[in-house]
Amino acid sequence: MTVPQAASVPDEAAPAARAMQVHAKPSADFDAKLAATQALLRHAAAEAAPVTQASSLGAEDVVITHIVNALALPIPVFVLDTGALHAETLALLARTRANSRAPVNVYRPVPEAVVQFVAREGRDAMYRSVNLRKACCGIRKMEPLARALEGQRAWITGLRREQSNARADVPAIDTREPRLKFNPLADWTWGDVWHYIATRGVDYNALHDRFFPSIGCEPCTRAISLGEDFRAGRWWWESNDLKECGLHVKPPADDRSPAPQTHEESPA
Fold first, then answer.
1. Which DSSP letter does residue 123 get?
2. Is residue 233 part of a domain?
3. Domain-located, residue 226
4. Is 245 assigned a catalytic role?
5. Does 120 fall in a domain?
6. What is the DSSP letter of 174?
């Protein structure tokens, strides 16, 4: 079959751009945002344990892990190694595991499930239909995610409202699912993220210097060009309506669990 080509991407032979130099432009209220993020993470550790951070090792996630470590919070981190990650992502994973104060746990798909899927559908199955792509995500991401979250009361993600239309209403604390989801960077801009990385010397994925703002599996991620949507490089051959793998898809409005009752005041 013909693999969809990644059109309109920067020339890979051109010098890489230093993401920090290009993007590190903080909001006027960055210090207040950082304080609110720190307060939210402290709240999660104190009031929602057991809680864990989900990290794809993208820019947002390395910021959260850095804050967790800086505050010495008892929040472990987990990474889904799908078996199809970029070499740059795997290199950062190794460095993160070596240097993080917080434990960094790695979850991988069931090998037999991957082997059977590839034998049945082929290595390029994700390009043939949305259903096959989602089936691949189900094996490589959703099943390991379920194991990573087993026994957890809450989890922490790097979702930001600026990332896409589908994420435009991301709350700081999402109570629409049985398990609490904390999104401590919900109101951060891309400039805020890179300002934190630049001023704190945070290690980050080298792909960001090559115009990859959103990084997933290697077959399903490409660089983007100036003016393209933040997530244009994810599953670029599909419709732009909803570019998600299933990890962060909102439940239907009539199928959302009510917010849990609490006597604690959540941080802003």
1. T
2. no
3. no
4. yes
5. yes
6. E
Q: Which amino acid is at 142?
A: M
The CATH number covering residue 42 comes to 3.40.50.620
Pair 189, 162: CB distance under 8 Å: yes
Q: Say what the pLDDT of residue 18 is.
A: 86
Q: Give the structural domain span for 146.
A: 28-212
| pLDDT at site 143 | 98
Could you give the C-alpha distances from 164 to 3, 88, 96, 233, in angstroms and in order? Answer: 25, 24, 27, 12
Buried b (16+ CB within 10 A) or exposed e, 18-52: ebbeebbebeeebeebbebbbebbebbbeebeebb
Q: How far is CA 154 from CA 35, 47, 50, 173, 240, in A?
A: 21, 10, 7, 10, 29
Query: Per DSSP, which regions of the chain are E strands?
Result: 51-55, 77-80, 104-107, 154-156, 173-174, 180-182
In a domain, 184, yes or no: yes
Helix, coil or strand: residue 67: helix
For the entire predicted model, the pTM comes to: 0.85
User: Do the beta carbons of residue 217 and residue 140 sit within 8 Å?
Assistant: yes
- Whose tokens are 């993160």? That residue is 96
Q: What is the pLDDT of residue 236?
A: 87
How high is the pLDDT of residue 25? 96
- Active site residue: 136, 217, 220, 245, which one? 245
Q: State how many domains the chain has.
A: 1
Residues of the chain with pLDDT under 50: 7-15, 243-246, 248-249, 251-268
CA distances for 97 relative to 48, 56, 94, 103, angstroms: 24, 13, 5, 7
pLDDT digits (tens, 9 = 90+) for 127-145: 999 999 999 999 999 999 9
